[in-house]
Each structure stands twice: as C-alpha cells, then as structure tokens.
Specification:
The complex is a heterodimer of chains A (284) and B (289). Chain A has 284 residues and is mainly alpha-helical. Chain A has a two-stranded antiparallel ribbon with strand order 1-2. Chain A contains eleven helices and two strands, in the order ααββααααααααα. In chain B, 31% of the residues lie in helices and 25% in strands. In chain B, the strands form two sheets. A six-stranded mixed β-sheet of chain B has the order 6-7-8-3-9-10, sandwiched between helices. A four-stranded antiparallel β-sheet of chain B has the order 2-1-4-5, covered by helices on one side.
Chain lengths: 284, 289
C-alpha cells in the first residue's frame, strides 16, 4: 500500500512555499515600483549630464556620476591586482588544508562580514589623516578597495580551484613551468569566474554609502583630480533624502539610475557566467 | 552476425563484423620493438599519505614497444605511469621509492631536470584536456616554452603533428577557433598532437579511449597503433579486448591487500594464451576483476 498524501498537509506546504517565494518577489517589486513611480518622471538626459544645483534639489547628477566612476575606478585598479595575486597564492601555492592558508581564508571571511561603516572609520583614520590624503576620491576608492578585497579574493580563488586538476597535470606533463602554467593555462580558464567576482564586487562598491561618507566626502561639484572630494551616487541619495528638504524627487531619480546600474552589472555577470562557463557550446 | 563464437575465452579471434573496425590480431603486428629495455623499474613503490598504493614493481619496458598495463581499478596503474614523468611530484604527500631509469637517466633523482624529463615523456589522460584557447595556441604553448618562437618553424611543426594524428584536414581552416569546440575524439587527438609536438621518446596514455564514443575510440586506437615503433608507448587500459588488439607486451597489476602489485609481465601472446599466474588467467578469462 502506498501511503496516501494527506491533502491538507499537501496544500499547506505548497501554500507555504509559494507564499514565501511570492512575499520575497513582491517586496522587491514593490520597492522597484516605488522607486520607478517616483523617479521616472524626473529622469531626462539633462538630469544625467547636468551638475546639481541648489544642494541637489535642482539640476542633475553629472558630477556625481563622474565622481562615482572615479571612486570605483580607483577601487578596482587597486583591488584587482592584489586580489588576483592573493588568490593565485592561496589556490596554487598552498595546499588547501595548510594552517597559514586556513588562517588567511578565515580572516578574509571575517573581513567580509565587517560592517561597511567600520571600513569607513578605518579609511578615515588611515587614508584621510595618517596618509594625509584628506577627504578625496583617492581615499574613498582605497577604502572601497579594502572593503571589496575579501569578496574579490574568495571568488577569484574559487574560480582557480574550479579548474579541473587534469589541466594542471597535463600542463605539467608538457614540461610547462609553474609560472607559464598559471599565466597561460589557468588564468584563461579562471577568467569567467574572475569577471563574475569583479562585477559582484563592483555592485557592492557602487551601492556603498557608509564607507564613503567619511572618506570621499560630500562635495558635489565636478572633481578636478583624484585628491578632490567627490560625492558618490549612494551618498547623494542619502544626503538628498535626509538632509535636504524637498530633495526627495531627485533622490528617487538618482535611485533609479543607481538601481539600473546595479541591475545591468548583475545581468552582465549572469550573461558572462552563462556564456563563458560552457565554452563547449560555442559554434564550431 | 558474421561473428563466430570462439571456443574459449582465451583464443578470441572474431571474424570481420559488419560495421565494425577490422580486428587486428596481435600476431599480425609487425615486429617493431627491439628487446632493448628503455624504461627500467626496480622495486618501485608509491605511497599516498603513508599508505602504499603500489609496491615492489620490477619490470623492463622495451624500446618502441606498445606495452599495455591492465588490471582492476585501484591497482596502481596510473600511479606507475605518473612515476615515469614525475607527475607524482604534483601530488601532495605522495612518496616514490625504489629505482626508475630511462636509458641511463635516474628519473627519481633529485638532480634530474624534471621539465626536460617531461618534454621527453609525453602523456595524455582519460578525459581530453584541451586548454581554453585556440587550437593553434594549444600546440604553440609547449613549443614557445621550449624556446621555439620562429613563426615558420611553429607552423611547420604544428602541421606535421596534426598530419601525424590525422587531424590536419579537419582543423587546418579553423586553427584560430577555440579548441573546446572540437568533438571529444578530435580533442583527444589534439592532446596527442600536443604531446607529440615536442618530439618525445616515450608516450604515456592513461585510458585514452575510455571517455570517447566507440567510433572516436576506434580512430584514436588506430592512431596509437600507427605510432608503434616510433615511440615507446605505455597504455593503461580497462579494455582487455583493446589490450589484446594492440599490445606487444602486457603488464598485469592486481591489488593484494589493497596495495597494487605487478603480477605478471610478458608478451601479449604469453599473457593472453598461456598466463603463468592464476590471477592473470582468471582476469583474462573474466572470472575475476
């Protein structure tokens, strides 16, 4: 005799599963809808390119976009080489169970969980004051680099570990030296994973507010150099919503831009993961 | 069916089956190997994390011969292959004991130039391991590492080995395409070409056909047979019929108490028709393993 499913239990569990999934989706859609409903009417090309006026109530976000781009650029230019080196060191020169590797990995995991405001204070103390960089795009970018490094290192290391061991064996069997194996054989195999990690970190950096308030500052005019203070998108939203009366419409419009950038980054990483992770499906 | 059932498992000689590759009885193989030992193992043993995987292997592999290493899983066949080009160095906590010589070279000595050894000993694996870039670059990489950078030399070497593995006509128009776009059998032949491009003396083949479909497997097998005499070939295979078809010599490994041992080594004819050891006879007849 097959046990008969209790129809009430069956219904209950189905409803629960659908209900929770629906709740999560609805929350996201509500948030997105709210931002779009309030923000879309303000959006125009002038808004994207013009500089903010009257503390951001009027004008656009041109200078903010430039500052954000520069901060992210500094962050990635610094974080990417360091992450790549550390990940290669962890994945290729260390046995997985060695103590030093475990300590490194453990501390990276702890670092990844540190609240961003703590990174902000650290960046303020070290970059702004100790190193004398002041409130600047450089300080902000370096602080963000510290913040995304753990994530970037772990995803890069993981993409190296995902490479089948046969690749290393056959590279060695061909008499290739270790540096050649890493640079010419393993790095190309790791690139898809590396890009996905890069874009995820980029998204995190783009969305960051707390770490930037103390380091890159509030100034909303067009930056002249990396040592100028610059306001990032998320800081702009925070300022308009919290400190500027009547700033809400433009805060919403900026949020539309920020969310679109984040969505684009995520879609791009999905596309890369899909396309590059299955090279066998490439047309012959 | 056109397939005459053999009287006993030991004298299998099927006639030509329709749609199947011509069967190459080992007796018809041209005598191409010299009875000169090329690889000499003496009391060779391998341990992983202190527990032995292979013990006390003593055998001579003749120059130019195709030697099949047969036996069940976990009897140390692959470990033995990996000692010959010191790939065991890459496996943490793997220790090799005993002596292994290629001609006069002491393979296991710490002074041995491992990169040079590996250029002299080509190896291909069960799964084709093409690298994730173009077909041309797959072959250029080992050549460039070896110091050959001249374009015409590179192109010439690449054409030569692709012709040797019968892949030239299939890839000559798409050398810049990604190598992973090739079919499984083509990828395995590309790997073989890549191993041959450095002109090795010895080829180690670790179940080169077992991950391929029957047709590709046949093509690769014919290719291996065509290399007989030019290279000393060691092939690990689970496929006894394949060993019977292509091997000059056979080495039979068997795990005793979980540790791989060499049970018997001799010509294919001796091993398949008059095995000396009971284990060998049982394995050949299919009653063990």
């Amino acid at each position: 005799m097959k046990p008969q499913p209790n129809s009430l239990q069956e219904f209950g569990s189905t409803a629960l599963v659908w209900g929770t999934a629906g709740l999560v989706t609805l929350t996201f859609l509500w948030l997105l809808g709210d931002i779009l409903a309030h923000g879309l009417p303000q959006l125009s090309w002038t808004f994207v390119f013009a500089s903010p006026e009257n503390a951001g109530r009027e004008g656009g976000i041109g200078s903010i976009l430039v500052s954000t781009g520069l901060i992210i650029g500094v962050c990635m230019a610094v974080a990417l080489p360091i992450a790549l080196g550390t990940a290669i060191f962890l994945a290729e020169y260390f046995r997985y169970d060695w103590v030093l590797g475990r300590v490194l990995r453990g501390s990276l995991d702890v670092l990844a969980g540190v609240p961003s405001i703590v990174f902000g204070l650290f960046g303020n103390a070290v970059f702004c004051y100790a190193l004398g960089l002041g409130f600047s795009i450089l300080s902000g970018g370096l602080t963000l680099a510290c913040m995304v490094l753990p994530l970037l290192i772990r995803t890069t290391e993981e993409s190296f570990r995902m490479i089948p061991v046969e690749h290393r064996l056959s590279a060695a069997a061909l008499g290739l030296s270790k540096p050649t194996t890493i640079l010419s054989v393993l790095l190309p195999s790791a690139i898809p994973g590396l890009l996905v990690g890069f874009i995820l970190s980029l998204g995190r950096a783009l969305a960051e507010t707390a770490a930037l308030i103390f380091t890159s500052g509030y100034v909303d005019r067009m930056p002249d150099s990396f040592l100028d203070s610059g306001r990032a998108l998320s800081v702009h939203i925070y300022d308009l919503a919290m400190n500027v009366a009547g700033g809400n419409p433009n805060a919403y419009a900026t949020a539309v831009i920020l969310v679109s950038l984040l969505l684009l980054a995520n879609l791009f990483s999905l596309w890369i993961a899909e396309r590059w992770a299955t090279p066998n499906r490439l047309p012959a | 069916m056109g397939y005459s059932k053999p009287s006993s498992g030991l004298t299998l000689k099927p006639d030509k089956q329709p749609g199947f590759r011509p069967w190459l009885p080992y007796q018809q193989n041209a005598p191409c190997c010299e009875p000169v030992p090329h690889i000499q193992a003496n009391g060779l043993g391998v341990t992983y994390q202190g527990s032995p995987a292979l013990q006390n292997v003593t055998l001579n592999i003749n120059r130019g011969c195709l030697t099949a290493i047969v036996g069940p899983s976990g009897c140390g066949k692959t470990s033995f292959l990996m000692c010959v080009n010191r790939l065991t160095d890459l496996i943490p906590s793997c220790q090799v004991s005993g002596a292994l010589r290629i001609n006069e070279m002491d393979v296991l000595a710490s002074t041995t130039q491992v990169l040079n050894l590996r250029r002299m000993v080509g190896m291909i694996f069960q799964k084709p391991t093409v690298f994730p870039f173009s077909i041309r670059k797959n072959l250029e990489l080992p050549l460039r590492e070896y110091g050959i950078t001249d374009h015409s030399t590179l192109s010439q070497r690449i054409e030569t080995v692709f012709t040797q593995v019968g892949l030239w006509n299939e890839v000559k128009d798409r050398l810049n395409h990604p190598a992973q776009a090739l079919s499984g059998g083509q990828q395995q032949r590309l790997c073989l070409a890549r191993a041959l491009v450095l002109s090795p003396k010895i080829l180690l083949l670790d179940e080169p056909c077992s991950a391929l479909d029957p047709l590709s497997s046949g093509v690769v097998e014919d290719l291996i047979v065509s290399l007989r005499g030019q290279y000393t070939i060691l092939i690990v295979t689970h496929n006894l019929a394949q060993a019977r078809r292509i091997a000059d010599d056979v080495a039979f490994f068997w795990p005793l108490n979980g540790v791989g041992h060499l049970i018997e080594h001799g010509t294919a004819q001796d091993i398949f028709e008059s095995p000396k050891d009971q284990l060998t006879a049982a394995y050949i007849a299919g009653t063990r393993g």
